[in-house]
Amino acid sequence: MPDSQPFLPFALPDLTETEIDAVVRVLRSGWITTGPETRAFEQEFAERLGVKHAIAVSSCTAALHLALEAVGVRQGDEVLTTTITFTATAEVVEYLGARTRFVDVEDDTLNMSPAATRRLIEADYPRHADGSYRHRETGGRLAAIVPVHYAGHLVDMPAFLAIGQEYGVPVVDDAAHALPASLDGRSVGAFGCPTAFSFYATKTLAVGDGGMLTTDDDDIAARARIMSLHGISRDAWKRYRQDGTWYYEVLEPGFKYNMTDIAAALGRVQLSRLDEMTARRVELASRYDAAFADLDSIRTPVVREGVKTAWHLYPIRVQPTAGITRDEVIDALKARGIGTSVHFIPLHRQPFYANKYGYHPAQFPVAEAAYAQYLSLPLYSIMTDADLVRVIDAVYDVVPATVRR
């Protein structure tokens, strides 16, 4: 029966009067594009993560593109990444004239599997005379590995960094979901490789659209800064300020990826509230865990030892024994006014990648099994206790609970 209550969205940003005041202050300043607010946001973000450089950009997609370009991914190269991710992770590889090769995931976290990554390299990328590893059929150079922290749970970064070091391949970290997660006390973004963050409207730190690239490498940071603003010489954003100069040089055909001071003002306040917003997500996720602990008909997310997850998502998996499909659960929850989403349709299923590269579901058995089962429940820091109870009650109403532990 349809729910008479207002629709409960899958996600909402957590914005207060402090964020509004910060944006108004920037609007009244007369300087609304990239400027001092953006630089302050970069400095504060770098200090928070304990990294040397933070480059604020227009999206996580932009950050990934800049990172891969900076580490040397070029036409004809090949990049390994997970099949369970948003298309942005792979599309930036296509921007550079390179190609993706997708890797299956681990069953518990749904993160990219280090073991499967190593098997793929060993099977398909023999060592070339020049010391690079090239695909045995295409001849494409293995140029980067891009792990993704699914739902905010960190991947096994030490394992991927070890693989990268062994094969001489840079690792670029897609941390769109992962702020402010950590592994064994080490913050996401502080593992020594370029890392891309998202500040999209559904993320814990939300500015509408925006992103950040972090790195300890001076050369990568310098390259990314230049390429993020049309490839023109450093500090060209200042050319309309009193401390700037009209003269600039185009060093490379770059991109239009700079962040505005409007977004940065939002970001600075959101960064100051990050722990508070994350704590609420952790509380909500733990209450979901407790509520569903006795249900054999759904599988709840795991958190591995040593991991502090960001809880960007709360994905459940509807088990084959439930007597109801994932799609039926989504429809039934929607009829009760509960918003959900699916993260993600695996990229090997998407027409562009399937048609261009010939992927088929049998190549990714773990991802395929999970995709048939998972959906993400509402999880955001301004969810009320009543909202949470409403979701839990709806799940119990929809998913048969005939089997209990």
Characterization of this structure:
The chain is of the alpha/beta class. The chain folds into 2 domains: 17-272, Type I PLP-dependent aspartate aminotransferase-like (Major domain) (Aspartate Aminotransferase, domain 2, 3-Layer(aba) Sandwich), CATH 3.40.640; 275-398, Alpha-Beta Complex (Aspartate Aminotransferase, domain 1), CATH 3.90.1150. It is 36% helix and 12% strand. It is built from 13 helices and 13 strands. It has helices spanning 17-29, 36-49, 60-70, 88-95, 114-124, 157-167, 218-227, 261-272, 274-292, 326-335, 351-357, 365-371, 385-398, and strands at 53-57, 78-82, 99-103, 142-146, 173-174, 182-183, 186-187, 195-198, 211-215, 298-299, 307-308, 314-318, 374-377. The strands form 4 sheets. It has a 4-stranded mixed β-sheet. Helix 1 runs antiparallel to helix 8, helix 2 (36-49) packs parallel to helix 8 (261-272) and helix 3 (60-70) crosses helix 7. The longest helix has 19 residues, at 274-292.
List the helices and strands and how they pair.
Elements: H1 17-29, H2 36-49, E1 53-57, H3 60-70, E2 78-82, H4 88-95, E3 99-103, H5 114-124, E4 142-146, H6 157-167, E5 173-174, E6 182-183, E7 186-187, E8 195-198, E9 211-215, H7 218-227, H8 261-272, H9 274-292, E10 298-299, E11 307-308, E12 314-318, H10 326-335, H11 351-357, H12 365-371, E13 374-377, H13 385-398
Parallel strand pairs: 2-3, 2-4, 5-8
Antiparallel strand pairs: 1-9, 6-7, 6-11, 8-9, 10-12, 12-13
Helix pairs in contact: 1-8, 2-8, 3-4, 3-7
